[in-house]
Amino acid sequence: MRTPPSSRGTPPPVTVGPGDPRYDDLALRRRNERFDQRPAYFQLAWTTEQVVAAVNEAVQAGRPISVRSGGHSMENSVGEHPDGVVIDMAGMNAVYYDPEFRAFAVESGATLGEVFCLLYLNFGVTIPGGWCHSVCVGGHIQGGGYGALSRSLGSVVDYLHAIEVVVVDEAGSARAVVATRDPGDPRHDLWWAHTGGGGGNFGVVTRYWLRSSDAAGDDPRGLPRGLLPKPPQSLLSGAIMWSWGDLPRDAFRRLMHNHAAWHEANSAPDSPGRTLHSTLMITCRGGRTHPPTSWSSRCSTAAGPTHTP
Ligand SMILES: Cc1cc2nc3c(=O)[nH]c(=O)nc-3n(C[C@H](O)[C@H](O)[C@H](O)COP(=O)(O)OP(=O)(O)OC[C@H]3O[C@@H](n4cnc5c(N)ncnc54)[C@H](O)[C@@H]3O)c2cc1C
Questions:
Q1: I need a surface site. Which of 145, 197, 260, 289 has the fewest CB within 10 A?
Q2: CATH class given for the domain over 14-210
Q3: Rounded to an integer, what is the distance from CA 100 to the centroid of its chain?
Q4: Atom of ligand 1 nearest to the CA of 30
Q5: Where are the domains positioned within the chain?
Q6: How confident is the model at residue 205 (pLDDT cuts 50, 70, 90)?
């Protein structure tokens, strides 16, 4: 097990049950308030060792375990069980360079906003993650993870070098294991199981290591090609909104078709259009107050196109 090099001192684990003023706050730390399941207790952990202890305790008590990092699953796939425990990863949010792996370590409770900020300000690199800064990597990376840079750089999971997962063996004993993308790693299958299928299936992921598959060297700030991609030098963005009144059925159908067809026709690896990302948001079906919106952004680099779409 590894800990961040500049460990901030480890607080003790925190258990929060009904009656504790923090319980309702934790119960509501989910994105979709349509769901209101409440567990027997929340377990906050700050280290991998504390997660191992929390899992052992729950297994011995026969309690179902759910894991939550950012709570941004719209379907509440965390699925709190009334007799269960929710292991909340919010306290494990370190982002640092790990020389042993020659990769960037990111703990599951780190938000995308923290990851973008720390990777860029410390090392000048980035990942092609999603737009919502409060999504956590805990669920995001296991689900694939895509964002404005994905048309040119791929998904976040393309950069997944290794994971640390707390798993339970046949005897019911929890431990942390590390699985890597090295095909010779005996735990390679466990790494593969975390490359897009979604969270909450195989164990509690405590840490991810990120590195480009073709990275060379061990300098986290290395130029011209670092261990992760360099972000574009600039980003141009714009939004267009349509009124529902201006969008009869045929026009709406044409808008949907053209939006998808343009992306399909401009997605080749060498296409200048690969740096343009556009999200078409259809926010409301019946009402007329929330029209469809298209957000577009083009990332330009010294080598790439610089004109606006
Ligand atoms: C407003 C918003 C914007 C979004 N934008 C994007 C986007 O631009 N691109 C994109 O790709 N996705 C986007 N998403 C989807 C988001 O990436 C997924 O919902 C992701 O799973 C959220 O991760 P989380 O840790 O915040 O959520 P959680 O609800 O905490 O977890 C999601 C699932 O992963 C499991 N899980 C969480 N942490 C762990 C862990 N440490 N170990 C094991 N299992 C775990 C949970 O049990 C649950 O099943 C967006 C979601 C929202 C709400």
A1: 289
A2: alpha beta
A3: 23
A4: 29
A5: 14-210, 234-300
A6: very high
